[in-house]
Amino acid sequence: MLENQMSKTNDPRSAPQSGSGTLPLPNTITRPELLVNDRDDQFRQMIQDLASLCGRLDQVRTKFAKRLGISGPQYSVFVFVAHNQGDDGITVSKVADGLLVTGAYVTKEVNHLIAMGFMTKTPNPDDGRSVLLQVSDHGAQSLSDLSSALQSVNDEIFRSLDQERFQMVSRTMHQIVADAERTAKKVSYYLDD
Question: What does the alpha-carbon distance between residue 180 and residue 97 come to, in Å, rounded to a whole number?
């Protein structure tokens, strides 16, 4: 039943049509590649689906974070460091760049994670102004304890993707995020602020 509801929700043909008793609104996009029959219904459905997906992923992240006794944002920083620290650690600025947040934000969350024993920081031998972040032994064990549940959840969320679709979606999402980051800095220009 849930699968049937999801298929209706994700089907752009089930979205209300602009001409069905609503005000005639201009399309939300002008690029012909993103219009179907000169309409933006499918584009708007895609945006709604992306927003819904982000919300669901945030709910899942928050539940995993809660299991560890940390916040959702702390969990994001923690997992990013764990998967990107390499042998020597990772700088705050590289974490901030990877998560598209500020260095001050990362520092605040890292300080909480260090106080709780999930991470460590050491002076950066290549740059005395920065530190290198690493997951502690306690942090690594905590992530290891979650791995089975995390694998099951990710397998279920992304079960509709085969290898080819996964590669295509992965590349496309990476580019869309980069485009969105660049565009977000110019929104005020478009709004004449």
Answer: 14
